[in-house]
Design a protein that fits this description.
The structure holds 2 protein chains of 2 kinds. Chain A is of the alpha+beta class. Chain A has 2 helices and 6 strands; from the N terminus they run βαβββαββ. The radius of gyration of chain A is 11 Å and the shape is globular. Chain B is built from 16 helices and 11 strands. By secondary structure, chain B is α+β, with helices and mostly antiparallel strands. Chain B has a 6-stranded mixed β-sheet. In chain B, helix 9 crosses helix 11. The chains are: A alpha+beta, B alpha+beta.
Chain lengths: 72, 399
């Protein structure tokens, strides 16, 4: 049941929060975050990164398209 | 590359208003990793260039948790406590951060903008009614962020005189004794514990109430972490923004063309706030120290396992490799990835709130008083000393 990660690079401010929490899942390119792989196996760190993003620029969905994080 | 010198005594003198010690400009080019002797705990590396500063702030090989209860190089006599989110590494840091992150997102912060504008309006009404000269620090720069953070956290404004005094105490470097600093911190912890106890009797929906529920219902944090977290949010939630409102206004008074540009085009305020965040210094201490958990090769040189490092964001924000004409205040700067709010897991949780408050404060002030000016010569504005943050002691103005 892989998850999908979407990072809105227009909204991202490059705080480095996600790359520090889940360094194998996110990378900063030109001061903006990007998912290393858009599809990942379930990983709590990805949810932590999405919940901690100050811009809510990261959305994690399950295979059915339901939003797992961030909580609104 | 930097070990040829004897360690330099740090800090390089008391902060001189909004100026940085001129030595930094030379060191950034010639010695970007400086060996410094700190007031307490021995020697550390002070890292000055943008790329290295970002690495030290965000790379998990540099630990804040390793400073806990340790006699590490530092600005203040007191040691780091393991109950403070500022001294935690992931996953403990993440566990606490997540509990409040929701309250400080860009989206939630925008919801607070109209209320913040109303607070600014009310304060400026009182300023106008009082008539010139008025001290903008006491009448505007301080009460604006205090009101916002008190409402957000759920701290009674009536207690302001007490927590302001204690807050000054915990941010002291040379202005108080170690005993006075500890007493101030203990007073804040006792005070916050009282607010926590009240919420157990009468639950609230504010941030403090949210933290109390996270402890009591889900055991997400310890009692000491809860109380410490409340204190940290209260202090960081107003000292920084209050001082920066004062610093920004002081900086604008020193540069009439910039002040005129903002008056002519209020739409420039958000970019101006970012540029002043980059260039107007707040901290006076080089930043929180981190310990290298293994050997790390920075661009400026090798940090060995166990060594202490400070990442200097004020210098990173003046790195000519990233910012063209770095010493120039340019409200039209296109790319401004300044590090004023830090980087990595400790990136300021209140960054979006601070941005919004600063935008509201500058906009409201300039709109209300188109002829606002200092009531003293600009070079006679006195700035605080002996504190971790700098800001004007008073800003007497007329209009």
């Amino acid at each position: 049941m892989p998850w999908r990660i979407d990072v809105d690079r227009e909204t991202c401010v490059g705080s480095g929060m996600c790359t520090a929490i889940a360094s194998n899942r996110f990378v900063l390119v030109a001061d903006r975050a990007r998912a290393v792989d858009a599809t990942v196996e379930p990983d709590e760190a990805v949810l932590d990164a999405a919940e901690s993003c100050p811009m809510e620029a990261i959305v994690v969905r399950d295979e059915a398209g339901r939003v797992l994080a961030p909580e609104r | 590359m930097s070990t040829v010198h004897e360690p330099r005594a740090f800090p390089f003198g008391e902060p001189d208003g909004l100026r940085l010690p001129p030595l930094f400009a030379t060191l950034r080019e010639e010695e970007p990793m400086v060996r410094v002797r700190m007031p307490y705990g021995g020697d550390a590396w002070l890292v000055l260039r943008y790329d290295d500063v970002k690495t030290v702030l965000a790379d998990p090989r540099f630990s804040r948790a390793a400073t806990v209860d340790a006699d590490v190089p530092r600005m203040m006599p007191v040691l780091s406590q393991d109950t403070s989110i500022l001294s935690m590494d992931p996953p403990h840091h993440t566990r606490l951060r997540k509990l409040v992150a929701k309250a400080f997102t860009a989206r939630r912060t925008e919801i607070l903008r109209p209320r913040t504008e109303q607070i600014a309006t009310d304060l400026l009404d009182a300023v106008e009614a009082q008539g010139p000269p008025v001290d903008l620090v006491q009448s505007f720069a301080l009460p604006l962020p205090i009101t916002v953070i008190c409402e957000l956290l759920g701290v009674p404004q009536a207690d302001r005189a007490d927590f302001r005094r204690w807050s000054d105490g915990v941010l002291a470097t040379t202005s108080l004794t170690a005993q006075e600093m500890e007493a101030a911190m203990n007073s804040l912890l006792t005070y916050m514990a009282g607010l926590v106890a009240e919420r157990r009797r009468a639950p609230t929906g504010d941030v403090l109430g949210t933290l109390v529920r996270a402890r009591d219902e889900d055991d997400r944090l310890t009692e000491d972490e809860l109380v410490d977290f409340g204190v940290t949010l209260l202090i960081a939630g107003h000292e920084t923004t209050a001082n920066q409102i004062g610093n920004f206004v002081a900086a604008l008074f020193r540069s009439p063309p910039h002040l005129a540009a903002l008056r002519a085009d209020p739409g420039l305020v958000p970019a101006a706030v970012e540029e002043m965040l980059r260039l107007v210094p707040l901290g006076s201490g080089g930043g929180f120290v981190r310990i290298a958990l293994e050997d790390v090769e920075l661009k400026a040189g090798l940090v060995r396992r166990g060594e202490a490092v400070m990442a200097d964001i004020l210098n990173a924000n003046r790195d000519g490799r990233v910012f063209a004409d770095p010493e120039v205040l340019d409200f039209h700067r296109e790319n401004n990835p300044h590090l004023m709010f830090g980087h990595g897991v400790h990136h300021c949780v209140g960054a979006q709130l601070a941005r919004m408050e600063l935008q509201v404060a500058i906009t409201a002030l300039l709109r209300r008083f188109p002829s606002l000016e200092l009531d003293v010569p600009a070079d006679e504005v006195e700035f605080s000393t002996g504190k971790l943050v700098r800001g004007p002691v008073a800003l007497p103005v007329r209009w």
